[in-house]
Amino acid sequence: MQVSNSTSQANEHKFRGKLIVLTGPSGVGKGTLVQILLQRHPEIYLSISATTRSPRPGETSGEHYYFVSRTDFEKMISDHYLLEWAEFAGNYYGTPRLPVEQQIAEGKTVLLEVELDGANQIYTSCPDALRIFILPPSFSALEQRLRDRATDSSSAISSRLKRAQIEIASAGDFDVQITNDDLETALHQLESVILP
Length: 196
Ligand code: ADP
Ligand code: 5GP
Hints:
Elements: H1 7-12, E1 19-23, H2 30-40, E2 45-46, E3 50-51, E4 66-67, H3 70-78, E5 82-88, E6 91-96, H4 97-105, E7 110-113, H5 116-125, E8 130-135, H6 139-149, H7 154-169, E9 176-179, H8 183-194
Helix pairs in contact: 6-7
């Protein structure tokens, strides 16, 4: 479904679970959208993932991610500490289970920002989760955003773009698709499906 701001479409999702899964190719603007969404709606709980990726400048452990070693991550997997996990562009990423379950139990809206494999795992374990896919206005715009962001090496950008083609092909499997062309428009669309 291509989202609009109409009341009927917003109501269609009103009674869905409180778990929101946000997915989209690297560089599409998920982090940007989430950051502004949380500033405007601090009652939403954003899950902080664990990853084996190195921190980018300005990223701190416990705020953006929990940055851990591969050994520690593999222990998290074997200890069933993660709600879902996946390997993406050569690194592990996963969602710590306990905080998500606690926040849901407290009645909070919980937001997960995960790649495609993780979103599919959540669909299996939590079928009531609302799954939202963020699309770029075009593939070339996506590539430009990744290059302009200048946080990844050119080989990392290549592997992210390769993966992006597969992810974008799955967008239709999600409950909602939002194109992040104009940022404010995309934010309004996101708010219209997430907020009660
Ligand atoms: P993601 O979290 O999906 O990997 P980011 O939020 O880091 O993506 O955004 C990638 C780059 O695109 C950033 O430099 C960001 O400022 C830029 N960006 C995000 N949304 C838009 C938009 N609507 N129009 C133009 N640039 C955008
Ligand atoms: P980045 O390295 O750009 O921060 O993230 C790379 C990809 O990993 C993004 O698509 C992001 O949504 C995804 N990601 C971040 N955290 C998790 C997680 O906990 N689980 C999964 N499966 N993917 C994640």
